[in-house]
Amino acid sequence: MIEILRRYSLITLLVIFNFTVSAAAFPLESVTDNAKTAQISKEGSEHPQETVIMKWWKLLLDLPLLAGWNKQSDDIYEPSFSTQSKSKAPKYIIGIHPLHNPKRLFEVYGPIVDFLNANIPEADFTLEASRNYEEFDRKLYSGHFDFAMPNPYQTVNSLKHGYRVFGKMADDDDFRGIILVRRDSGINTVADLKGKAVSYPAPTALAATMMPQYYLHTHGIDINRDIENRYVGSQESSIINVLRGHVAAGATWPVPWKTFSKENPQLADQLEVKWQTEPLQNNGWVVRKDLPTAVIDKFAALLFDLAKHEQGRAMLARIPVTRFEPANDDSYEPVQAFIATFIKTVRPLE
After folding, report:
1. What local confidence, expressed as pLDDT, does residue 102 receive?
2. Which pLDDT band holds residue 85 (cuts at 50, 70, 90)?
């Protein structure tokens, strides 16, 4: 706020100074004098008063405050959430893959981070959002996160980057791809999608992209030739693209679709789930292997016990999921098998 006031104060001074110098340098002149000034300028002669003004402007623009306005910052804004103050406690960053936009993600997972902080006083947990899948992948695979909840594809990949699986979301039956169309679209069979556009959140979204693309592949669609694939950045965006008619169909998975339907029933009523895939293991919880075992164990125990008390069940209902449950690296072998088949038959993965 102080910085903003300083900037506006300086702008005001500049305007006043410019007006004062102009008024002093150019008293009321006759039309003839104006014509002479114009002629001098046209011939390339330098006007004395203009030089004074320009010198002052250049001097002021060299000040750090103004010069900073034109400087492009390379810093990336990365929103985070932490309500506890534990300045002396070790800090741990929690990353959730882009299930939602950052605002929505904090609303859903912020209370869980609060709960962890309140019950593990020797640690300071911060929830950090990522703008998109690419940014989340970069952070995860560089070991930036201490704890993370990636999608199953990212979970499998994280094992090569110093992480191990210690838990997962339950409700595996909900981890499936669904393909939405408008009720008035006239699309009745998979073949009707040929020559049309289909939206997905991101190329590496397992349930909402890879599984629907595999479904289309096994039902006669060459996704590399028969349709236009549009990766629109988020689950919500994929749904909205169908709603607005920008694409013929949009892929997502049941969790964001349930949330959208609950919050926007009239809009959701314009859409229908036309096809759905077989399920796979739900999102995993991973942790960096170099973290203290005591902290990991307490973190895991609190997560797995959320379904056992009213406060925890309210937090889980926001996601929505019935519980988190223990898991390990071997739990995701079916996901590894699916990914291998997908790469071989549908398209490569970067």
Report:
1. 86
2. low
